[in-house]
């Protein structure tokens, strides 16, 4: 096997791993979109917020310390304790459920029946709001998530593969964290599918996704389902936030990376969980491959736009995405 | 098809001219479903032509074929004597075919006046530069077409709501505004998709009067779909009856009324 | 009492079509223009020009542009920052390539260039609708910013990767470069705003405006009454981008003077202009001004109250600003989708009927 080919394979594998990350964020979009028709632009910021909250709780930060100090002239910042990771995750989940309730109660309950584009713009407002609240609560400095997740390249894999392509091939370099993320993503998807297939609330969720009116008429509470869905999306955001945050620190750029989930969805179709995953993998691999082959010729950093342009071109030829349902227009 | 003279005069003194639109052997499929099966009929100049039939008979699909929204897989459409090539709906509209919709399709964010003015779009030719300057060609054109639209507004008796946003109007008035928009285009052929659906008796009488007046005063050819048999029989010169995508009757209201197949379709005799 | 239409009978369709059908509104419009042209230029100083008036005027043009696309034609775009960058870089290239041509001409041509780029990115709008399109316009945003960052030709291979505006004159007065007087910067923006607003009003009051709104309200019905959807949408993209390109050119040449593309025209700029349009009012030219004024003034006011009066740290104030803007966006979408312009209309409606509200 030639070295070039092996490097290409390595690029592809790394792309796949990045794609898993995109898929994680995209999952949250799909959940909300299916159940309520809301295209939640804030999903990326939710991941950021969840990761910020988790880091803040673990560090024992005082929420809103900054603003309290500014108003009262005090100088508080930490409680002085450290919360164990598991407990902190549980507490973060509680915060995300509270957030879900608040979003439903104060925003989207008042926007029922509005056009999708209005809902979309509202979620952009929500993204700004949540970003501001996150910064106010926990400060805007970059935080590290010390969850004890494995870091760095996998030595074992490198040792296994070194020498495959001759003397100048040093083995596959694959981040251990990416491998963990892949396993977590698989577990998450499996449990989500199990939840929606085999539990009462899961079935109710699918009923709502299918037809609001019909779901109402058999006694399903739309309000409850929507809070549930936003909570689930919050949970998915937390998982994505942990993975991204452990990889590159909890900072604002996290919500921008999460924007990549949008083209992922345009590829995969907005209503399909398998679509979100396949779309994520395609985008992840595609952009790494493009950067590897073409990027160096045009100055690099093509990852900034490749996903969007790919999705754009794709949509022009197949507007419903890979797995979305074909839309027949009626008069 | 019964052989009729090229033009004739009806009992109430209107002149019906030659064939305006001729639909020949139209077949329309959605996937495996045949919505329209090999249907032919014609529409003559100046007449009121009705298409009736039970739910799901393919009436609306037929109208959508005429207005170019659906492309039939087989068959030909002749309009004013010439074969109509494959066209986009907006091109069909520019040929002089206007229509209303079963579920009202007005522009909810615009005023009644603006909605009706959209009916004149194809008569307004000022380019973008002229419109940007406004004074001169664009304004002149606007005023000329406004005058035309005001005549339609007077005709349909909706002067009082000219500046009201359409979204705020009740159902019956919306239907009337939609008719006004179609009329403003001075169509050669006016298609009405269930113009009286969801109306009470009084509103139906109003609408029937408007339809007859339009036909009488402007000589507009009208093709309409309607459920209410009584209304159809009173209004129309000739009727096409559809059932399960097939044509089962065609003729004057009296002829159609006596047709056994039509009676069966409406009374629900089992198909074999 | 004087805000009345009673007794003010219209006897021609031209009178009925006026922009300000009520006499009082007409007087106020002329008054605002008189103050803007005859009073402010003599009072303006560096702070007022740079903190408030010049950015307000430039953003107003961008907001008018986006409002034509989003408010009138219903196509949401998140590419405004990228299109402003096209205007800025086109202007820079023209200024450096043809130093003898008047800057006004350069700015207009920059608008034209942006119109073409905008129309090209508008092509998918025939197939893609709603938020699909919004995401698709992100492609324009990210791609254009990347392009201006990476391709040296656009910034004349300058070492810093920045572009900076050389000094250019209108008549004897410098309008760009470090020696431009605040009043001159203000005046050139004001003239462009006035012309853009009048043109935008004219384009939206007649045939084109109705076509755009028809597409927005129900594209299928629009097509069936004879509107060519692709052509209309592309026109909307082109006109919208024309205005946005002009604002980008002014933003670079007159306001900032030197620009680093990712910083000045990043995605945040797209959102900022979109928010101006939402808060000001979708489908209203006046709303574009209101929204631009609001979002230019808000940070200034917050900084004044937060930092100067209360003595809070600036990062805290900027976080608060995010929260407030986000909350306002949601508030307006829930309570008043037509934004400040509608609030203003409702107030006028009440004034008109006052003191007999029923």
Automatic annotation (TrEMBL), chain A:
Q: Which GO terms describe its molecular function?
A: transmembrane transporter activity
What Gene Ontology cellular component terms go with this record?
Answer: plasma membrane
**Keyword check for Acetylation:** no
UniProt cross-references to InterPro entries, sorted A to Z: ABC_transp_permease, BCAA_transport_permease
> How does the protein's chain sit in the membrane according to the entry?
Multi-pass membrane protein
**For this UniProt entry, which segments traverse the membrane?**
12-33, 45-67, 79-99, 111-130, 179-199, 220-244, 264-285, 297-317
Keyword field:
Amino-acid transport, Cell membrane, Membrane, Transmembrane, Transmembrane helix, Transport
| One Pfam family cited in the UniProt record for this chain | BPD_transp_2
Which Gene Ontology BP annotations are present?
A: amino acid transport
Give the subcellular location. Answer: Cell membrane
Similarity remark: Belongs to the binding-protein-dependent transport system permease family. LivHM subfamily.
Return the protein name: Branched-chain amino acid transport system permease protein
Species whose genome carries this gene: Yoonia maritima
TrEMBL record, chain B:
| Keyword annotations of the record | ATP-binding, Nucleotide-binding, Transport
Enumerate the PROSITE patterns for this protein. Answer: ABC_TRANSPORTER_2 (PS50893)
Print the organism lineage: Bacteria, Pseudomonadati, Pseudomonadota, Alphaproteobacteria, Rhodobacterales
Fetch the PANTHER family from UniProt: ABC TRANSPORTER ATP-BINDING PROTEIN (PTHR45772:SF1), CONSERVED COMPONENT OF ABC TRANSPORTER FOR NATURAL AMINO ACIDS-RELATED (PTHR45772)
One MF term from GO for this chain? ATP binding
Task: Report the protein name in the record.
Answer: Branched-chain amino acid transport system ATP-binding protein
Q: Does the keyword Nucleotide-binding apply?
A: yes
Organism equals Yoonia maritima
The keyword Transport appears for this protein: yes
The leader peptide range reads: none
Positions of the ABC transporter domain: 21-269
Superkingdom of the source?
A: Bacteria
List cellular component terms (GO). Answer: plasma membrane
Automatic annotation (TrEMBL), chain C:
Pfam families reported for this sequence: BPD_transp_2
> Keyword Cell membrane: yes or no?
yes
Which UniProt keyword terms apply here?
Cell membrane, Membrane, Transmembrane, Transmembrane helix
Judging by the UniProt lineage, the source's domain of life is Bacteria
Q: Which GO terms describe its molecular function?
A: branched-chain amino acid transmembrane transporter activity
Query: Can you tell me where the transmembrane regions are?
Result: 27-44, 50-69, 76-95, 101-123, 130-148, 183-200, 236-259, 271-296, 316-334
The way it spans or sits in the membrane comes to: Multi-pass membrane protein
Give its localization.
Cell membrane
Which InterPro entries does this UniProt record tie to the protein? ABC_transp_permease, LivM-like
Q: Name one GO cellular component term.
A: plasma membrane
Q: What is this protein called?
A: Branched-chain amino acid transport system permease protein
């Amino acid at each position: 096997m030639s070295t070039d080919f092996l490097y290409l394979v390595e690029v592809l594998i790394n792309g796949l791993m990045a794609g898993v990350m995109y898929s994680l964020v995209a999952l949250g979009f799909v959940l909300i979109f299916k159940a309520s028709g809301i295209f939640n632009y804030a999903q990326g910021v939710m991941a950021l917020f969840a990761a910020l909250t988790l880091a803040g709780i673990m560090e024992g930060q005082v929420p809103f310390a900054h603003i309290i100090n500014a108003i009262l002239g005090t100088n508080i910042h930490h409680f002085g304790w450290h919360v164990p990771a598991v407990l902190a995750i549980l507490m973060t989940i509680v915060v995300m459920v509270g957030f879900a309730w608040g979003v439903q109660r104060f925003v989207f309950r008042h926007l029922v029946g509005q056009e999708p584009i209005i809902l979309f713009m509202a979620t952009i407002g929500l993204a700004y709001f949540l970003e501001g609240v996150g910064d106010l609560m926990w400060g805007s400095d970059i935080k590290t998530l010390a969850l004890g997740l494995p870091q760095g390249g996998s030595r074992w894999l490198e040792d296994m593969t070194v020498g495959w392509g001759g003397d100048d091939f040093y083995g596959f370099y694959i981040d251990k964290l990416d491998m963990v993320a892949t396993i977590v993503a698989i577990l998450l998807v499996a449990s989500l599918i199990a939840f929606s297939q085999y539990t009462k609330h899961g079935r109710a969720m699918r009923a709502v996704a299918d037809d609001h009116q019909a779901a109402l008429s058999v006694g399903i509470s739309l309000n409850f389902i929507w809070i549930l869905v936003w909570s689930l999306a919050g949970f998915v955001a937390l998982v994505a936030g942990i993975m991204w945050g452990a990889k590159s620190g909890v900072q604002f750029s996290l919500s921008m990376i999460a924007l990549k989930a949008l083209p992922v969805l345009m590829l995969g179709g907005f209503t399909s969980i398998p679509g979100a995953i396949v779309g994520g993998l395609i985008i992840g691999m595609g952009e790494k491959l493009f950067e590897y082959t073409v990027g160096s010729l045009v100055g690099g950093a093509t990852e900034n736009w490749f996903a969007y342009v790919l999705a754009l071109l794709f949509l022009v030829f197949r507007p419903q995405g890979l797995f979305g349902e074909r839309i027949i227009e009626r008069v | 098809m019964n052989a009729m003279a090229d033009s004739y005069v009806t009992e109430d003194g209107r002149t019906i001219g030659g064939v305006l639109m001729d639909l020949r052997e139209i077949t329309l499929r959605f996937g495996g479903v045949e919505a329209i099966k090999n249907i032919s009929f014609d529409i003559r100049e100046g007449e009121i032509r009705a298409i009736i039939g039970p739910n799901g008979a393919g009436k609306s699909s037929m109208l959508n074929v005429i207005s170019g929204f659906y492309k039939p897989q087989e068959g030909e459409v002749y309009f004013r004597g010439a074969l109509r090539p494959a066209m986009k709906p907006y091109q069909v509209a520019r040929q002089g075919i206007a229509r209303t919709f079963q579920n009202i399709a007005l522009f909810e964010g615009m005023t009644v006046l603006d909605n009706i003015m959209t009916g004149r779009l194809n008569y307004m030719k000022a380019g973008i530069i002229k419109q940007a300057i406004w004074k001169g060609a664009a304004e002149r054109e606007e005023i000329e077409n406004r005058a035309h639209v005001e005549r339609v507004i007077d005709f349909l008796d909706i002067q009082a709501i000219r500046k009201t946003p359409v979204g705020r109007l009740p159902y019956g008035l919306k239907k009337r505004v939609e008719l006004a928009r179609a009329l403003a285009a001075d169509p050669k052929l006016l298609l009405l998709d269930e113009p009286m659906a969801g109306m009470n008796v009084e509103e139906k009488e109003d609408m029937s009067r408007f339809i007859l007046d339009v036909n009488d005063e402007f000589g507009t050819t009208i093709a309409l779909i309607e459920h209410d048999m009584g209304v159809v029989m009173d209004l129309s010169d000739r009727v096409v009856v559809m059932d399960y995508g097939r044509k089962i009757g065609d003729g004057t209201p009296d002829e159609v009324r006596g047709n056994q197949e039509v009676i069966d379709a409406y009374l629900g005799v089992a198909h074999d | 009492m004087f805000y009345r239409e009673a007794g003010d009978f219209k006897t021609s369709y031209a009178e009925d079509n006026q922009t300000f059908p009520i006499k009082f509104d007409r007087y106020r419009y002329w008054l605002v223009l008189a103050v803007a042209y005859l009073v402010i230029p003599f009072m303006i100083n560096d702070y007022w020009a740079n903190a408030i008036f010049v950015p307000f005027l430039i953003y107003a043009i961008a907001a008018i542009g986006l409002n034509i696309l989003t408010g009138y034609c219903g196509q949401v775009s998140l590419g405004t920052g990228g299109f402003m960058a096209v205007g800025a870089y086109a202007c820079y290239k023209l200024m450096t390539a043809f130093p003898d041509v008047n800057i006004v001409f350069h700015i207009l041509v920059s608008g034209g260039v942006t119109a073409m780029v905008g129309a090209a990115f508008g092509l998918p709008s025939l197939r893609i609708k709603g938020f699909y399109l919004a995401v698709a316009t992100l492609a324009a945003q990210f791609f254009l910013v990347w392009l201006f960052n990476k391709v040296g030709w656009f910034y004349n291979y300058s070492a810093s990767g920045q572009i900076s505006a050389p000094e250019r004159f209108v008549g004897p007065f410098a309008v760009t470069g470090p020696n431009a007087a605040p009043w001159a910067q203000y005046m050139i923006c004001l003239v462009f705003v006035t012309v853009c607003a009048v043109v935008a009003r004219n384009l939206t009051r007649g045939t084109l405006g109705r076509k755009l709104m028809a597409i927005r309200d129900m594209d299928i019905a629009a097509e069936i009454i004879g509107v060519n959807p692709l052509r209309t949408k592309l026109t909307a993209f082109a006109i919208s981008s024309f205005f946005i390109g002009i604002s980008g050119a002014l933003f670079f040449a007159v306001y900032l003077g030197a620009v680093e593309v990712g910083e000045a025209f990043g995605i945040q700029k797209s959102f900022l202009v979109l928010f101006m349009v939402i808060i000001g009012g979708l489908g209203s030219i006046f709303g574009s001004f209101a929204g631009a004024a609001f979002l230019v003034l808000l940070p200034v006011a917050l900084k004044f109250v937060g930092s100067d009066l209360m003595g809070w740290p600036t990062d805290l104030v900027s976080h608060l600003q995010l929260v407030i803007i986000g909350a306002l966006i949601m508030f307006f979408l829930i309570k008043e989708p037509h934004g400040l312009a509608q609030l203003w209309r409702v107030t006028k409606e009440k004034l008109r009927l006052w003191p007999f509200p029923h």
